[in-house]
Every structure is written in structure tokens, then in C-alpha cells.
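Sample intake sheet
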Amino acid sequence: MDDIDQFLQLHRAKLLTYLDGIAPKSPTDQGPLEYVEQVLDEWSRFSVGRELRAPRRGERTFWFALYQLEELVEYPVRGELDPYEGLLLKNLAHVTELLKGWRELPGGFYATRPGEDSDEL
């Protein structure tokens, strides 16, 4: 396990608590948006000046789940569940199960690392 894997595994466990609705446990815990911003900030500091290897199994699933969580919590609440919000929830339920097993992101879904140019892939 290299340092990228360690970073991802450290955050994977906590991300799953947000995806499963377990976190935040108390009013003093970070909300989901603050947590997402923390992970993105830590990745930015972690990856600066590094030669990064190609993503391994499950890594794009991690980033997809993080981005979907961010999008869901930033989505304005309107009372009724609108179709796009329903799609986000459906995607999150599916990707949460994939993330638990550290499985690959299936076709039709895609995510890059923060700062990764899709032209580099």
C-alpha cells in the first residue's frame, strides 16, 4: 500500500459514514460539505509537486462518491424531491455499495482526481 492508497483508505471510512447517514454524529462534527472541502484541501496539499501514479481499483469510485455527495448537499432543498435530486440519491446509493467493496466505477460513470486533467487520461 503506497501513500495514495493510505490517503484514500483513511478518507474512505469517513466518507462512508456520511454516505450511510451516520455522520455527523453531533452538532460539533463537520457537516458533509465541510468534510468534502477538507478532503479536497488535504488532497491538494498531498498531491502538490508529486508524480502521481495511475489510479488503482476503486479510486475513481472514491472520487465519484465524494463529488456526488458534494453536489447533493449543495443542491437547494425545495420541499419535494425533484427528478435530478432523485438521480443523485440513486447514484449515491449505488456508488456507496461499490465503495464499500472498493470496486471499480462502472461504465457510464466517471470521475477524475482533483486537479487531474481529463486530457491526460
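Comment: The chain has a mean pLDDT of 91. The radius of gyration is 15 Å.
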